[in-house]
DNA sequence: GCGAGTATTGGGAGCGCTCCCACTGGGAGC
DNA sequence: GCTCCCAGTGGGAGCGCTCCCAATACTCGC
């Protein structure tokens, strides 16, 4: 325990004294508020510079009842779901938008019960001015916590079951439909789906899009082969598909990871892509470009998702009542289909 | 601007009143401090439950001069460097370790001058109890800011030029050496390096490891072909290499992205991997497994890097003086070499 | 030259919590 | 029986800032 000299930061009162003004004036000058004469304003600025004064955000937060921070909560029982580059891009977008509103970003990975409890307390105690919630499972206790905490909350993607008041989502149904229609338009008639976990809204929505397109084309949809959004699960699903439906000629994978897995399984089984089997993914992450062959996939504006969530939250915090947003997704054609 | 009823949170004083104790006692009871009789402690707990009281973290922070948050700062002029899954894993590790110390994580992407300035202010104003700094370029103003802010700072990876007092790094030199030695041990004699940006310490260290191994084996090192850690730059570097040294039979790529790019360029040039040219990468990210052929690479404990940074920071915050840490990296052999 | 405004100014009461400190009332020790 | 010690208690002074409000200074029109 090294006892370091705790040398305190200069406070507003010291600025006050050095500049020869009252605390109110100093405060106004520092916050660029009106009702400060030019002379005093400059005196304050000089004192601030001389002292190296920086306002204490905690004290300010206590007085204004605003923390100046927004929380981004990523839920899921396995912290590694966060390793998905998807979230990194969401963060990039959200971070940029929050910065515009001069808010800081608190990142909460709510994987364990303990951390979920911490997040709940953070929200209830108004430790942040608002929160963005992502990847909520069915019955996720976080959803209830968010409701109890009386602070602005924006959902990223809709949770299963309920439709929250404020959310930003991607048009998963439309994207999946477009992908499937594309496969059909290229003459594929035996198109299967490798879908993601059907206990998530994304998983369901993308399957729904696939199904809609198949039915609309008069093709009976295959039974969905369920994966869990990971590459290995995609490979396994593809293998199962090949076993059950050897004549499959098209595959809609509910995300790129599983699409990549499917490609690997197809390669292993000696099927040519796209000649024998065409494959389409979803997400348009880096893996889609690296895959061999490069994966035709549905691009979704991930950074925009983060950005819009943050903007919606900022609007909410400032007392407005924004409307939910559904961002478009569109097909990017590459070699795999 | 909807005027919502601002219904305030219950405060300690309300608990105090309901429980019929003094503020001191209530505070002690809530913080599990000693000097509280069993009876009063229970009375307080009851009142807390009844009121749904949650301590206000801001007020607590002001009184204790501790914010209960640690900042993770990722620097770089392009926010997209953050999209590298590398950071996501660091965050997972750091987040878990911070949680153990009951600290929240503030994530700061310092891409623009404006955001760097904000980060500087955050640190100087002690808006966080400590900070973890990553990916500092040469002359990064953040390094100076961190020094001026008198709060605990831990570096993730060493910045170019200086060796900070506290840091956690990966043994890049050792890992690169091991990778190169492996190529040499497999009979490769014309081993080239596709190195990362040489204005970063990682880039330099990995090149140094390659060079050491080559010299130790009595092989003259090739001139480094510099990339920028991206897949395309790896492909371009490989193409250049093939043009200048058509007889190259081994490649050490300073990260997996560039390794994947090299594989693509080799495939394009009709070279077989590993028969004609063996390739080794660095990082062991998902892309290494997805690559075709799967990339032999140097695994580094990324989550551990984040975890150890956070632990070191926690130690620092609690007044200890931890020693810098260098985490081991080791080769993972796959098909590419 | 005078009253009505309008622009500045500074005092002071919070914001909700921690923690020092002075005080009380028993046991334990002798 | 009388100190001494200490668990238990509550009062109150901050932590550093914002912001309401009353007080003062200046302006302008007539």
Which features would summarize this protein structure in a list?
3 domains; Lambda_DNA-bd_dom_sf (chains A, B); DNA-binding; 16% strand; Rossmann fold; Peripla_BP_I (chains A, B); homodimer; 337 residues; elongated; alpha/beta; six-stranded mixed β-sheet; 12 strands; six-stranded parallel β-sheet
Radius of gyration of chain A: 26 Å
Integer tally of domains of chain A? 3
**What is the distance, rounded to the nearest whole angstrom, between the alpha carbons of the first and last residues of chain A?**
63 Å
CATH architecture of the largest domain in chain A: 3-Layer(aba) Sandwich
CATH fold type of the largest domain in chain A: Rossmann fold
**What percentage of the residues of chain A does DSSP assign to strands (E)?**
15-25%
Oligomer: homodimer
Number of helices of chain A: 13
Largest interface comes to: A-B, 61 and 60 residues
What's the β-strand tally of chain A?
A: 12
CATH homolog superfamily of the largest domain in chain A: Response regulator
Protein name (chains A, B): LacI family transcriptional regulator
Pfam families (chains A, B): LacI, Peripla_BP_3
Keywords (chains A, B): DNA-binding, Transcription, Transcription regulation
What do you see in this structure?
2 copies of one chain form a homodimer. By secondary structure, chain A is an alpha/beta fold. Chain A folds into 3 domains: 12-52; 69-170 and 303-327, Rossmann fold; 172-299, 3-Layer(aba) Sandwich (Rossmann fold), CATH 3.40.50.2300. Chain A has helices at residues 12-19, 23-30, 38-51, 57-64, 85-100, 113-124, 141-148, 172-185, 201-216, 231-244, 256-268, 286-290, 302-317, and strands at 69-75, 104-110, 130-134, 153-156, 167-170, 191-195, 225-226, 250-253, 278-283, 296-299, 325-327, 330-332. In chain A, helix 1 crosses helix 3 (38-51) and helix 8 (172-185) packs parallel to helix 9. The model of chain A has no long low-confidence stretch (mean pLDDT 92). The interface between A and B is large, with 61 and 60 residues. The structure holds a DNA duplex (30 and 30 nucleotides).
């Amino acid at each position: 325990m090294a006892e370091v000299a705790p040398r305190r930061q200069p406070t507003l009162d010291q600025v006050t004294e050095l500049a020869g003004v009252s605390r109110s004036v100093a405060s106004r000058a520092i916050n660029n508020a009106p009702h400060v004469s030019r002379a005093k304003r400059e005196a304050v600025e000089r004192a601030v510079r001389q002292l190296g004064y920086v306002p204490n955000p905690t004290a300010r937060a206590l007085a204004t009842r605003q923390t100046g921070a927004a929380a981004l909560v990523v839920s899921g029982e396995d912290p590694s779901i966060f390793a998905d580059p998807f979230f990194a891009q969401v963060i990039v977008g959200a971070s940029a938008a929050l910065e515009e509103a001069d808010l800081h970003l608190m990142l909460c990975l709510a994987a364990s019960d303990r951390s979920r409890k911490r997040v709940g307390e953070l929200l209830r105690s108004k430790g942040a001015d608002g929160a963005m919630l992502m990847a909520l499972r069915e019955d996720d206790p976080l959803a209830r916590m968010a409701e109890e905490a009386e602070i602005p909350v924006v959902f990223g993607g809709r949770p299963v079951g309920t439709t929250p008041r404020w959310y930003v989502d991607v048009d998963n149904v439309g994207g999946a439909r477009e992908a499937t229609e594309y496969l059909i338009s290229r003459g594929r008639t035996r198109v299967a789906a490798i879908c993601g976990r059907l206990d998530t809204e994304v998983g369901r929505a993308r399957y729904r899009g696939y199904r809609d397109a198949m039915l609309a084309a008069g093709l009976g949809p295959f039974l969905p082969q369920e994966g869990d959004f990971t590459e290995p699960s995609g490979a396994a699903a593809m293998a199962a598909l090949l076993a059950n439906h050897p004549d499959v000629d098209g595959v809609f994978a509910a995300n790129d990871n599983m699409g990549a897995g499917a490609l690997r399984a197809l390669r292993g089984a000696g099927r040519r892509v796209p000649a024998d089997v065409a494959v389409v993914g979803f997400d348009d992450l880096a893996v889609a470009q690296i895959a061999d062959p490069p994966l035709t996939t549905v691009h979704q504006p991930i950074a925009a998702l983060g950005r819009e969530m943050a903007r919606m939250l900022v609007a909410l915090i400032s007392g407005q009542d924004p409307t939910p947003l559904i961002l478009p997704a569109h097909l990017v054609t590459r070699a795999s289909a």
